[in-house]
Amino acid sequence: MTLTDIKTAPPTAWFGIVVIALYILVALFAPLIAPFGETEIVGMEFEPWGGAYPLGTDNLGRDVVSRLIWGTRNSLGIALATTALAFGAGATLGLLAAVTGGWVDQILSRLVDMLIAIPALLFALLLLSIYGTGIVNLVIVIAVIEATRVFRLARAVAMDVVVMDYVEAARLRGEGRGWLMRREILPNAAAPLIAEFGLRFCFVFLAISALSFLGLGIQPPTADLGSMVRDNAALITFGDITPLLPAAAIALLTVSINFVVDWVLHRASGLKD
C-alpha cells in the first residue's frame, strides 16, 4: 500500500484512519492530556457537567474526562498486546499445520475445533473465575480463545498457497518449514492476515470491555471503558447520558477499524470501485 493509495481512499476509510490516529494520540499522551490523575478523587460523586468537570464526576468523585482518557489508554494497550499475542500464536500454528500436514495438522485442527465449540464469553468467564482476574491472566485467556480463530484463517489461507509450484520448488531445494513459512507462504497470505488482525483487535477490544463490565476484566481502580459503563450505570435512571460516553468510545473505535479493514480488503482483492 502506497501513499497514493491512502490519498485515493474513500471517505469512510479516511474517517476510520483519522479516528484511529486520534485514539492512538490520546493513548500515547494521556498523562499530558488528562486534567487529573487516573485514580484521583476530585469532587463529590456524580457531580453535573460543567465547570472544572466538563463531563461531571463518576460514582467515586473522579473526573469523567480524565477517566475516559486513561481508560482509552489502558483498553487500547491491553487489547493491542492481547491481539498481538493471539495473532502471533494462531498465525504461526496455522501456517505450521498447513506446511507440515499429517498428524500435526490433525491434532492442532481438532484441538482448535474443540476450543471453538465452547462459547467464548462463557469460557473466558470460567477461566478467569478459576485463575483470577489480573491483567496477565486476562491477556492470556483472551489470547488463547482468539488464537483459535486466527489459526483457522491462517491455515485456510496457507493451504491454498502450499500447493503452488513455487512452494514445491522450494521444498525440492531442501528449504525447511521455517523458511517456507516466512519466505514463501507468509508474503502471499499477508493481505487477509492483516485484515484479520484489525478485525481480531475489534473482537478483543469488545471482549475486554464486556468482561470489565461484568467485573472480571480490568480491575479497579485501573480505568477501563467497560468498567466505566458499569460504574455509572445508575445515572441512566435519571436521564443522564454519562454511562453512554465510554460505550460510544468503544463503538466509535470498532466502527472506524472496520471501515479501514474493509478498504484494505477491497484494495487487496483488486476489485474496482
Through-space gap between termini: 17 Å
The coarse overall form would be: elongated
How much of the sequence is in beta strands?
under 5%
Give the biggest sheet.
Answer: none
Class from secondary-structure proportions: mainly alpha
Radius of gyration: 22 Å
Residue windows where pLDDT falls under 50 for at least 5 positions: none
How much helix, percentage-wise, in residues? over 70%
Secondary-structure element series: HHHHHHHHHHHH
What is the β-strand count?
0
Mean model confidence by pLDDT:
88
Q: What is the helix tally?
A: 12
GO biological process, one term: transmembrane transport
Membrane topology: Multi-pass membrane protein
InterPro entries: BP-dependent_transpt_permease, MetI-like, MetI-like_sf, OppC_N
Subcellular location: Cell membrane
